[in-house]
Write the structure tokens for this entry.
Amino acid sequence: MQIGKVIGTVVATKKDPELEGLKLLLVKAAEPSGKAAGSLVVAIDAVGAGLGEVVLFAAGSSARQTQVTKDRPVDHVIMAIVDTIEIDGRVEYDKSK
């Protein structure tokens, strides 16, 4: 799993039938503080994430393990929305702030 930040959406009207009905989001890898600071991927949203949220996403065969993405042709999936990130007893990211 990786930490990422949702920075946008992707709309594709023509796509493989296995992708019909799936929400596509642009996710940029992020630091523990929640600041976007890495590579950009398109990920299937399996949890109802929204713009600006810090999320956990998986890549490769792990991306096809959620109920939403099972046996579908996807390489990245958002599988959690992060509430807090704590390192060495210090809160680095807090969604409520």
